[in-house]
Recover the amino acids of this structure.
């Protein structure tokens, strides 16, 4: 059974940094796609960053490019989302999603999701 778990959310002032972690387990094949999405109440979930664990470079949404960095620790089956220069508009519930392949930002195609971790940025 595939499990996905995020951690690392919290509250920070604008301009600050946070690092989120996401660990996946239970995949029966080597390599999988890990993606970060975020959602504000009343709005659709939006893709933030994604990468495949075998040899792929991360892709970022324009809204976070040059501020967020996604990295992989393959030994721990964990991806990280380093968020720098945070803005109030980054406030959201952040979700980690996983699947065998990446599906761009189409959230409905990612089968496995964590419960989410809240990020709050105060101005």
């Amino acid at each position: 059974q595939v499990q996905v778990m995020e951690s690392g959310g919290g509250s920070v002032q604008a301009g600050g940094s946070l690092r989120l972690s996401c660990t996946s387990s239970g995949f029966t094949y080597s390599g999988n796609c890990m993606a970060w999405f975020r959602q504000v109440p009343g709005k659709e979930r939006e893709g933030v960053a994604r990468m495949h664990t075998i040899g792929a470079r991360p892709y970022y949404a324009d809204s976070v490019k040059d501020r967020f960095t996604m990295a992989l620790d393959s030994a721990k089956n964990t991806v990280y989302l380093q968020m720098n220069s945070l803005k109030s508009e980054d406030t959201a519930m952040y979700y980690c999603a996983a699947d065998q392949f990446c599906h761009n930002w189409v959230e409905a195609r990612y089968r496995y999701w964590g419960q989410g971790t809240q990020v709050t940025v105060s101005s």
Observations:
- The chain has a mean pLDDT of 95.
